Amino acid sequence: MVAVFASTYLAFVWRSATTVDGRATFTLFDDAMISMRYARNLSQGNGLVFNAGEQVEGYTNLLWTLVMAGVHVVVPDPRFTSLVVSLIGVVVLVGQLLVVRAAVSRVTDRPWAPLLAVVGVGVAWSLVFWTLRGMEVGLVGLLVTSALVVVHVQTDWPTARRVVVVVLLLGAAVATRDDALVLAGTVAAGALWVVPRPQRLRFTVAAGAALAAAAVARLALRWALYGELVPNTYRLKVQGVPREVLVERGLVSAGYTLAFGLAVLVALAFLAWRSGSFARACILVVVAQGAYSLAVGGDAWEDLGFASRFVATVTAPLVVAAVLGLVALAERTASNPARALAITVLLGTVAWIALAPATTRHHRLGDDSIPASWSRALFLGVAAAAVLLAHRPAWRRPAVAVLAGLIVVGPNLVPWTRWVRSDQPFAREETDWASYGAALREATLPDASIAAASIGNLGYFSDRRIVDLLGKVDPVVAGSRPRTDVWTLPGHLRWDYQHSVVELRPDVVAQLFATDPDDIPSIVAAGYEQLGTGVYLRPGAAITSRAAIERAAAGAG
Known about the structure:
mainly alpha
């Protein structure tokens, strides 16, 4: 089964190939391409920067970015660097499947449980998509899941060896993403369930000191490189945003996550609370990550129909806990309070679907109609009925079978079907941005500057200095007033064209994100000539020809 999934992932990667400037090229999700540009600059000796000479930390995945830098050393051709990163993602996903299979095999003697866990993780669209499209989601998930297994499953290992391995795994997770400290701390705390009492103090001190050292080392490196204690992206997304806006947006994000199928996994996970320390630790990790996602306002893309990057990171612990909950249901060891909580989660999600407005600011319940929303409600209602009926001997097997199918199908049927029928999300946009970037590279001189909002693929393939209109690599924009009156899309709340265009005066404004009534007049008053929708040219710009810019703008899509 692992081989089947590995082949599927390779097909996913191969299908992501596109054509840029008439040549086969691979791209990644736009945020991943921001890290790729940092990585390329590092590999070329320019430092860990987005624009040469500008010390701004616009990434949140240090270790993953360093991996990308290594890829650029080995494969410098920009057409294929993304391919190699995606193939590394395949290895990471296969690693998770192997870890999950081994762990579940050791904690239950039900022969179907390891297979169901492997299938549930292997088919998880959110984990597959974010990992193969270049995000660090899979790597953090593999490190955290492996740490859980070492603590709670590899109990035959000497305590000292387990401490060393766990510290290395969790330290690597924190080095990959700063906020993985939430997961690392949760894993370390859960270890106290299984560490022998005489050794708990030593374990606690060792794990706590190691995590503190990792956090301090990360802060020291950030200060040395950028003179800041927090990344620019933290300031952009959270700083200055009213707490009530973050909480409201986080709750809406949680509603989407549950409505698009994860409510079944969450409900079944709660049934596993009495199934041992491994199950409880998996549940705690999922709850901790969910709480963190809520606190920071969620991600930006929950309305796509699958879990966000935050939730996808803990896919393996969630699926494992759900499978162990299903085992508890089959063996009648799930407590009545746990069953009541599971049913409450399912029916509560049905109520959310029914009562939530059809639209929210910039978001809606997927891109489907009201009947599609009610089909989700029916699906969750069937799951609740199965949990309710599973305590009756005559209904137990069919109920368990139904829930096993829902673990696999529920969150994944729609996105995988769409992938088969058409393509992955953002495929066209990423191709357009990459092609636009390549065209702008040909249309501009090496010292030109380009203003854009989607700076990942466009910035990577243009290889020109970028003026970031949304502030990921611009501290001035990141510190400007958040436009929460317009929408609440995290990371897309700030822009300041007076600063970005009128003051910085890029040679080409390649695209605009959103505008106030006085933005366009101020850009024109600053001497810029409009060449197309959202495209402006500065007089005396460092370009090869005006016609080349016009062709690039016309093909921007």
